[in-house]
Amino acid sequence: MLDELKNIWSDGNEEERRILELAVAAIHQKRERNSAFISGFLGLKGEFIDEERQSYRFELPLTPFMHNSGGVVHGGILAILIDSAMGSLINRSLPPDQYAVTTELKLNYLLPGKGERLRAEASFLHRGHTLVVMEGSVYDDRDRRVAHGTGTFIVLTRNGRK
């Protein structure tokens, strides 16, 4: 395996070397933040975008990992971005003994994802004790909305009861 990685690094093209760099970044981010590997591959770094912590944003550079064979951002990546922004917002708003997971996700793809960067934003639509409904969008670097979605999340306790 190590020889294969060395061969890719020395004989591969720029895109292939970039994928290896993303894999290393994903491993480092997993170790440092205990985040999902996909967060490292995507380079997700988030922040709250209002005073009351009612909305959340990821900004990230586009990488070869995100493109489909047509050269635009893969629809699954856009879904991950929206789901991750919504999930990050709700999970950062819960007490330590609770967490939320997606139970339903609905997306509309509006434009091809192109450019240098993407921005995913999420906010609450309804916040119940057990079910939370959220919305999220992804924008390109020209501030065009390329995807929009809604998601329902169930709030669980760490010991499995709710």
From TrEMBL:
Record GO terms (molecular function): fatty acyl-CoA hydrolase activity
Q: Which residues form the Thioesterase domain?
A: 70-146
Keyword field: Hydrolase
Which stretch is the leader sequence?
none
Q: Which InterPro entries match?
A: ACOT13 (IPR039298), HotDog_dom_sf (IPR029069), PAAI_dom (IPR003736), Thioestr_dom (IPR006683)
Q: Which Pfam families match?
A: 4HBT (PF03061)
The organism's place on the tree of life at top rank: Bacteria
Q: Which Gene3D superfamilies match?
A: Hotdog Thioesterase
Q: Where are the transmembrane segments?
A: none
Classification via PANTHER family = ACYL-COENZYME A THIOESTERASE 13, THIOESTERASE SUPERFAMILY MEMBER-RELATED
Its family remark reads: Belongs to the thioesterase PaaI family.
This chain belongs to which protein, by name? Thioesterase domain-containing protein
